[in-house]
Records
---
Amino acid sequence: MQCSVCGAEAEDLTSGDFDGLVVRCKRCGEYEVADGALNAFLRLDYDARVAALEKAREAAAGDRPTVRADDLS
Ligand SMILES: [Zn+2]
């Protein structure tokens, strides 16, 4: 798959345990995008996607970050 943030080749770690996309990217690391946020997330430009991921990463405090719809506003 392609990374949803940077477009680089990435690994799809999505499992049934999580309602959304789980990605491992060499550039962006591991992250999740919740189902409810995915469409809006993919419509953002690159800088905005990076910013949303950074915001999720701060909120996760060391855990795998999850981009949620709330992070996109
Ligand atoms: Zn990436």
---
Amino acid sequence: MKPAGEVLPTGFLGRSARIVQLRAQIERIGMGRAPVLIQGESGTGKEVAARSLYNANPTGLFVPIDCGSLVGPLMESELFGHARHAFTGAGETKRGLLELANNGTAFFDEIGDLPYELQVKLLRVLQEREFRPVGSLQRVRVDVRIIAATHRNLEREVAAGRFREDLFHRLNVIRLTLPPLRERKEDIPLLVERFLLHPVNRYTITNEALEAMIRYDWPGNIRELKNCIDRMMTMNTGPLLHFTDLPSNVIYHVRAGTGMEIAAAAGGGAGGGAAGAARGIPLPRATSFTHGVVPLQELERRAIEHALQQTRGDRTEAALLLGIGRTTLYRKLKEYQGSEDAAGSARSAAC
Ligand SMILES: Nc1ncnc2c1ncn2[C@@H]1O[C@H](COP(=O)(O)OP(=O)(O)OP(=O)(O)O)[C@@H](O)[C@H]1O
Ligand SMILES: [Mg+2]
């Protein structure tokens, strides 16, 4: 769940091919009014995607509706409003969230949690573009774009009888599936760089810590990565954040999975470079940077290295994954080869 008061970025950050493609889809889909269903694990950016869809063509208001909080006797009136004296304590006429979203966008967050009774009423809004507030004889016409998000598999919810099949089909007009962070690790350096931006302090991260972050699988996805960095910045005055400043679960996971590599990396050894070289990819040795700060070029080199590992050395696929042209990838690899050769000659000259 989102911490209260959190400011969500409007841009959908990422350089991986899947995110580049997703951004283009969002731009295109955002121009229309058809319902969109966003599916993705917890913390993958479903709300960021919904807001980006709205921002592509911002008409009216963006009204987030937390379906999990629509419980109890007032849930229907929350959503559809009520007439004056509709029930004890109703007082004056009240407009519901859907009316508030008229000419704009209603974002049904965690639609899988929408109570069954409200699913029927929402279906009617999608079909007829109108509804009746609680206790009212008058119908209210609305033009609302519906964006729904869920971390659940809605097909399974339908099969289990917890979600109405007709509503599912109405919502599932355009589907956006957000990839988990572990499937687009090449985006980690960019996200880390962004989350390290601090209003007061200037933080940087050591290469060992960044490497560990790339190895870790982030089950809580971007939210977990962001929380991890926020926590490291809160606990440390900086400016450098080290491997040992990482949360213990990350350290434990990484040590358990790749103990030797991390030990080598922590000792300034040839962790990442060796992995690349083992597949015949000419990459420089891991460098010990001044004060352990990772320069941007190095982050880029690691993203390329990771993409090549993921595609088992297939450069065309790796370029696609990185969202860069094949020629650019070849040029960069040539540059790395050049600096590796130069370092090699310098080493032999020194012997
Ligand atoms: N592409 C992105 N670029 C930058 N920040 C992102 C991106 N995606 C997500 N975030 C950040 O990650 C956090 C989680 O994003 P969001 O709330 O949109 O995810 P969610 O899928 O709705 O999560 P939950 O299932 O927990 O509700 C937020 O702090 C958000 O700012
Ligand atoms: Mg959410």
